[in-house]
Specification:
single chain; about 120 residues; 6-stranded mixed β-sheet; globular
């Protein structure tokens, strides 16, 4: 049986493969996704609308996990650096993430990152 940490690693692999359908398949139909500082997306279709621009505009996606831990209640915490290569830019974003599960699927995903730092890289 896989741990939730392994499920998060597979979720990240789906991001790196830029496979929106695989990403969404790893989430419950009513999952909630929040990039703290931005609007929350609830449900697969809202999440699809939120993540598709990142996935489709990036020529490459790399998420490097520096630390990962699973609590006794199955919540996975990640410290990572998310890299998106978009055109001639490479955006590097330090992130702390929290993943909650219902069974084998992610039911809630929150990322905490430096929004002004990300916006400066986009300018």
């Amino acid at each position: 049986m896989s741990s939730h940490c392994e499920r998060v690693r597979a979720f990240i692999a789906a991001w790196e493969a830029r496979d929106v359908e695989d990403i969404l398949a790893r989430m419950t139909p009513d999952a909630a996704y929040l990039n703290v500082g931005l609007s929350e997306a609830k449900g697969r279709e809202a999440i699809r609308a939120t993540i598709t621009p990142f996935v489709t505009t990036a020529a490459e996606v790399r998420w490097t996990i520096t630390h990962i831990a699973e609590s006794e209640d199955g919540v996975v915490l990640t410290e990572r650096v998310d890299v998106f290569v978009i055109g001639d830019r490479t955006l590097s974003v330090p992130v702390m993430g929290a993943f909650e599960f219902e069974g084998d699927l992610i039911s809630a995903w929150r990322d905490y990152f430096d929004l002004p730092g990300f916006q400066a890289q986009m300018a």
